[in-house]
Amino acid sequence: RFLSGACCCLARRLARPPPGKYPMADEKRPASSGSSTTSADSSSSSASSDMLKVSPAVAAIQRELLTHPVRLREILGDFDKLRSGCCTVAQFRRGLDLGRVRVTEDQFEALVREFSVNDRVDYNRFVQQVEQVFLVQGLEKTPRQLVPSPGSTVKRASRSARNVENPALHGILHRIAMYAKTRGVVLKYCFNSFDQNNCGLVTEAQFRRAFPFDALVPEHDLQTIVDHYCEVRDAVDMVDYRALHEDIDQRQLWNPVKQNFATSTFVPSPSQNRWTSENYSVEQKLQAQVAERRIRLMEYFQDFDPLRKGHCTVGQLRTVCNIVRLKLSEEELEHILRTYSRVDGLICYDALVAVIDSAFTLPALEKTPRVRVPPMVPDLTYPARRAHLKLTEEEDLLIDAVEAVIRDRIETRRIEPLQMFQDFDRGHVAGTKKAVQENHCTRQQFSRVLSAQGFEVTTAEIEMLCKRYCDLGNLDRINYREFCAAVDVRHELRIARTQDISTPREPGKNKYFTRNGQIIPSPRWQTA
């Protein structure tokens, strides 16, 4: 027993490295109580920065372990029964083979020379350097230190230098970079779900599945990308998507020379049409819209004027117009700003509202309660409802001639044009008396009805009819009811027939119930 114990102690002393020779394996003493936390953190950060400097052979193994993580400490620890932290060269080579870590002969010899201690390999220090890619050693002593993400400290070989002169690949990468920049796609984030170890490699099937521009990039271009960024790992073809992301980022920063292309700006030709709405002032148009929809403008303006000063800003005026849906052009709005604006740029909305309300009410009506307010007439709301096209005398004569032909055809064949027009009216509901009809149809529907009823009307004649019966301020919607009233002599008679003009009869005595709701017994049962 004594001899065996002595041999164990001697073996431990021989396996232990001399102090100060390998500072990366030595443990640091905790800082004294008098030293500040900042100095400890700075010393730990400098130490960690030193630990990040590894040899090329260790960096290659770190990149290898990112693809398939292996616990090398447990594998190599099986050969170290005394837990001395060292093993033989043969055991070190065998442990790397068991962990499926592929190294060349030159790399293996470099590792043995770097971590050799008395003809043995210090695998403890080797594992500490390799595991830097996953964790930071001694983190419990410096809790404020920032921990990098796994794999971020590994310097990976760039693939962008290969085949950079290939014009086909250059065009494909430039097109993908434009797609990513236009759609705001970060390419490396698309493959995170398949890269759990953050090694930057996915299989070809995973790459094709997560590629965001598969519908925009042809198959042969996508195959070119796969062939260029393909790497063989453990007899499996892996695609280096992170190198692809770096190449695309470089092309997004490259700004090509702007070329001057021939452009044609759309400039609409000025319209020669003149409408009857141009005869009314802006105040009259506002009066018609407010009176038609019974809008209380003063209440909307007072929401922006808590002190009731009677003025508001230009933005608040635009907001009120949008809330109540007043149809104003930019020229009309500019007229209001010029007329009712003050020197400081505010709008006197009380004066504007007083002018608009004067059309259907009287000012200071509470002082004269016996004064009767005149009722609103249809002419007051006409500027908001109708806008006819101004026609010349020659156009009126041509339209009258066309209407005369249509009128004779209706009178001869006894055609009822109104019924077919109502089939295209979106507000008309057949069989109901309370139908909300728009009384308007489109130009295509108007031409279709005339053709279906056998009227031989040309396109030019339809254009002339549209000019007369388009009363909404555009040439797209036609008032078919006014057209039917003009060409159909029996139009008013047909309308009167469809209406219920019978006089209501006086309610007679009910023979089943009394006025109180009681049942009246049958005379047969009373005689019985």
Account of the protein in words:
With 528 residues, this protein is mostly helical. The chain contains 24 helices and seven strands. The strands form three sheets. It has a three-stranded antiparallel β-sheet with strand order 3-5-4. The chain is elongated, with a radius of gyration of 46 Å. The N and C termini lie far apart (134 Å).
Helix and strand topology:
Elements: H1 2-15, H2 37-51, H3 56-67, H4 72-77, H5 89-98, H6 105-115, E1 116-117, E2 120-121, H7 123-130, H8 167-183, E3 201-203, H9 204-210, H10 219-228, E4 230-233, E5 236-240, H11 241-253, H12 282-293, H13 297-302, H14 314-323, H15 330-340, H16 349-357, H17 378-385, H18 393-413, H19 417-422, E6 440-442, H20 443-452, H21 459-469, E7 477-479, H22 480-487, H23 491-498, H24 523-527
Antiparallel strand pairs: 1-2, 3-5, 4-5, 6-7
Number of strands: 7
- CA-based shape: elongated
The first-to-last residue Cα distance is: 134 Å
Category by helix and strand content:
mainly alpha
The number of distinct helices, counting runs of at least 4 residues, comes to: 24
Share of residues in strands: under 5%
Write out the strand line-up for the largest beta sheet, numbering strands in chain order: 3-5-4
Q: Extract low-pLDDT stretches.
A: 19-51, 158-163, 430-435
- Helical fraction: 40-55%
Report the major sheet: 3 strands, antiparallel
Label this structure with key terms.
mainly alpha, two-stranded antiparallel ribbon, 528 residues, elongated
